[in-house]
Design goal:
The structure is a homodimer.
Chain A: H1 9-19, H2 26-38, H3 41-57, E1 59-60, E2 67-68, H4 74-77, E3 82-89, H5 92-101, E4 106-110, H6 128-136, E5 142-145, H7 151-163, E6 170-173, H8 189-197
Helix pairs in contact in A: 1-2
């Protein structure tokens, strides 16, 4: 569709802004904008103000680099949690995923990505230095790596493992294996192979 | 995911706002919000301000009810267009679709929907009265119905046809038939049947 077919510059600008979002093409952007046009003015102002306000006010926890409303996030500020166990994750979405399992009572460290030379992301672009600082201070007992099982995730795992080898800490990585509910015949061979190698005594799994 | 797993109220509010948009679930909303968080502040402010500004400033053409930046839209204000031929469409998206064909030089009338008793939309909820007003004034020669071929679209077509029957105008409807590029065997039988009934002399199609 040629740009000149938009009947209004205001509409076109709004479509352009929405189309910048990931996974939103121009047709979807137009659908969203027309939806907003049908809503009450107050509701649309609230949408815009909430987005503006969020970007302006949001902070990153100075300890774990998670998104937060204050200088220290709720998780790091919670004294009931085990501050000697750090779970290293890629992004805040992983924090939310792990939190929703209710199986982890330690704290997190958000790397902000994984090492990916192809995308120009090196170790210095991630929050590795502050993580090392925390470990150096000596109160950390265990670091759990919970990164994606992609090549980049594994590279980052290995880099961190080597880097922290000199400190007196336990480094672990979350278990890889057949998903619960999955049928064996549909599991890919790499996962199935790994789950055989890393088999556990039966009594540990119940 | 429980709402409490959001690490920040500001983030959660923004996700809630995005999740109100059609076709955007909470997971997608979170992805969009986290994308915005990674952008420069100025860029996000621009996004929010553009949306706010659009909703505040946008107008509807007083003649055709199309979205416009001014009281009369560019199409209605264009004196080179044929103001005696009105194409009746459901929404502004249809105007844009027809404009992009560059096959129509008349003007439009945006109904704002179709008659749909199931959704509580009756003739009075659409811009039928101003359309009749235009026809009454006598300068209209042809009204082209370009509504969807749904039950609601056909009902609206028929309602308008009956309503405007008493005026001395030609009423037409856009041709229905096999799409260009479609194979006959994959065309549904209703469309194929209609395209047989409404067959044209060969020389008219070249």
């Amino acid at each position: 569709m040629s740009p000149s077919s938009y009947p209004s510059k205001l509409l076109e600008n709004a479509v352009n802004e929405f189309a910048k979002l990931p996974g939103i093409g121009r047709k979807t952007a137009l659908r969203l904008v027309l939806h907003l046009l049908k809503q009450e003015k107050e509701q649309v102002y609230k949408f815009a103000d909430t987005v503006h306000h969020m970007r302006q006010e949001i902070m990153y926890c100075k300890s774990c680099h998670n998104i937060s409303d204050s200088e220290t996030c709720n998780i790091c500020a919670d004294m009931n949690r085990d501050h000697s166990t750090i779970c290293v994750v890629e992004s805040i979405r992983d924090v939310m995923a792990i939190e929703s399992t209710q199986q982890f009572s330690g704290v997190y460290h958000v790397l902000g990505g994984v090492i990916s030379p192809m995308d120009g992301i090196g170790p210095d672009d991630l929050t590795i230095a502050p993580l090392e600082e925390k470990i150096k201070n000596g109160s950390i007992k265990e670091v759990i790596f919970a990164l994606s099982t992609t090549m980049e995730g594994d590279t980052t795992n290995f880099y961190l493992y080597k880097k922290f080898d000199k400190y007196n800490i336990t480094t672990t990585t979350i278990a890889r294996g057949v998903s619960i509910g999955d049928e064996l015949e549909y599991t890919d061979e790499v996962t199935l192979g790994r789950s055989l190698i890393n088999r556990l005594p039966f009594e540990k799994t119940i």
